[in-house]
Write a structure and sequence with these properties.
Number of strands: 0
Strand content: under 5%
Structural class: mainly alpha
Number of domains: 1
Helix content: 40-55%
Shape: globular
Oligomer: single chain
Order of helices and strands: HHHH
Largest sheet: none
Length: about 120
């Protein structure tokens, strides 16, 4: 049962948004389970391949391994069309900024005030 972003709780989305917003500022990210992993695990079952049902997998943001997950600064873009002139850190910042916009749009759709 693949979940979509609208299936994820507001508190989880806020937590994930905070994690990556902080990572952009500090330029540091500890690659570990995020709250979305835990929520999906709780809903789908820990004994299943719950990653495949996560909205971050469905949207190609996370592949559970940092070298193939766009949300990780360690991501290695092996696509033929990737711009090799862009530094990996700038590429990561750009990708995470797009990710944060995606999460923020869902939160705003729910009526969450993100300017506090």
């Amino acid at each position: 049962m693949a979940l979509v972003l609208s299936d994820i709780s507001t508190s989880t989305l806020l937590s994930v948004r905070e994690k990556y917003a902080k990572a952009i500022v500090t330029r540091k990210l500890r690659w570990s389970y995020c709250d979305m992993c835990f929520e999906v695990m709780a809903r789908i079952g820990e004994d299943t391949n719950y990653c495949l049902d996560c909205p971050l997998w469905q949207s190609a943001w996370c592949r559970s391994i940092r070298y193939v997950s766009r949300l990780s600064p360690a991501y290695i873009d092996r696509s033929f069309n990737s711009n090799r002139m862009v530094s990996p850190m700038l590429r990561w910042e750009r990708d995470v900024t797009v990710f944060l916009k995606w999460i923020s749009e869902e939160l705003i759709r729910r009526g969450v005030d993100l300017i506090k």
